[in-house]
Design a protein that fits this description.
By secondary structure, the chain is of the alpha/beta class. It has 2 domains: 119 residues, 3-Layer(aba) Sandwich (Rossmann fold); 180 residues, NAD(P)-binding Rossmann-like Domain (Rossmann fold), CATH 3.40.50. The strands form 2 sheets. The protein has a 7-stranded parallel β-sheet. It has a 5-stranded parallel β-sheet with strand order 2-1-3-4-5. β3, α3 and β4 form a beta-alpha-beta unit. α1 packs parallel to α12 and α5 packs across α7. The chain is globular. The chain binds glyoxylic acid. The site of glyoxylic acid has 7 residues, from loops.
Length: 317
């Protein structure tokens, strides 16, 4: 029986499946393992079912026992793993694409709505009964007719575009390559970021975190936006330079932000707290029961496929 380290607590059905297939070291207290502890616990394991909270950098990967042959990451993003270092050690890395597209796109839309329609201020006022209806009370930005710039038209970007279009938004996007016109569904392609940002009344960051995208939204690129635009991020905190975004909020260059992810999670940059126009969630993108079950099942399928065939269709390195 293969031995697997499962770094975070999963839903019961998923843990039951793991126990039936493997000698599984589960984390019943859902402790956040340090890199040192993770290395110790993986002793004798054939694989690790990791999560986005595990920082598997080069140093950590190099100290993993030789028996570890697969890192099956319980996420579509794999910015927490140095995939080249893993490759050098002959460890395959897999992710969980497709199954979280809908749930994450729903949160992407919530961010757009929450930021545009001043949800943070509205919720606070309602909870304290401290408001009075008036014709100009908490006036926000209407989505209908507003231009949405999608940075990264992958699965999640496309689903956000589809929903946003049904809400009357006008879709623009930037991607490494242009989609074929049948897949664009009327969206306008921009071959560079500057061009996309200059038409984005609302920006939705949907691209993966990589060497190329870290801090892509920064002091310089934020200037490309029209004044009073809205920035949302459903992808990864590393893509946005928080200091620059907070400064843009301070200067009202940016009117509001909607963030499901941010750097240094769970510690939010306190600069956001002074802005009531910041609508911020604690990384809820894939947090529905159906999706979390499907993600963990796919992470387990990836292990199974690898142990049976030495391959995985969801290999990323
Ligand atoms: C969630 O953020 C994921 O990458 O799966």
């Amino acid at each position: 029986m293969k031995k697997i380290l499962v770094t975070r607590k999963l839903l019961q059905l998923n843990e039951d499946r793991l126990k039936s297939l493997y000698d599984a070291k589960l984390n019943s207290n859902d402790e956040l393992y340090s890199q040192k502890k993770l290395i110790e616990l993986s002793e004798g394991c054939d694989g690790i079912l990791s999560s986005l909270t595990d920082k598997l950098d080069e140093d950590t990967i190099n100290q993993l026992p030789k028996s570890v042959k697969i890192l099956s990451n319980f996420a579509v993003g794999f910015g927490n793993i140095n995939i080249e270092a893993a490759k050098k050690r002959n460890i395959i890395v897999t992710n969980t694409p497709e199954v979280l597209t809908d749930a994450t796109a729903e949160i992407g839309i919530l961010l757009i709505l929450g930021a545009c329609r001043r949800a943070t201020e509205g919720i606070e006022a309602a909870k304290t009964s401290n408001w009075k209806w008036s014709a100009d009370y908490l006036i926000g930005k209407q989505l209908t007719g507003t231009r949405l710039g999608i940075l990264g038209m992958g699965r999640i970007g496309k689903k956000i575009a589809k929903i946003a279009k049904s809400l009357g938004m006008v879709i623009h996007y930037h991607n490494r390559s242009k989609l074929s016109s049948d897949k664009e569904e009327g969206a306008t392609y921009h071959k560079d970021l500057k061009s996309l940002m200059s038409v984005s009344d609302v920006l939705s960051v949907c691209c993966p975190a990589s060497k190329e995208t870290i801090n892509l939204i920064n002091k310089e690129t934020l200037e490309y936006l029209p004044k009073g635009s809205i920035v949302t991020n459903v992808a990864r905190g590393d893509i946005v330079d928080d200091e620059a975004l907070i400064d843009a909020l301070d200067r009202r260059k940016v009117y509001a932000v909607g963030l499901d992810v941010y750097k240094g999670e769970p510690n939010l940059n306190p600069g956001y707290l002074k802005h009531k126009s910041a609508f911020i969630l604690p990384h809820l993108g894939s947090a529905t029961k159906e999706t979390r079950l499907a993600m963990a099942n796919l992470a387990i399928d990836n292990l199974e496929e690898f142990f049976k065939s030495g391959k995985s269709k969801n290999k990323v390195n």
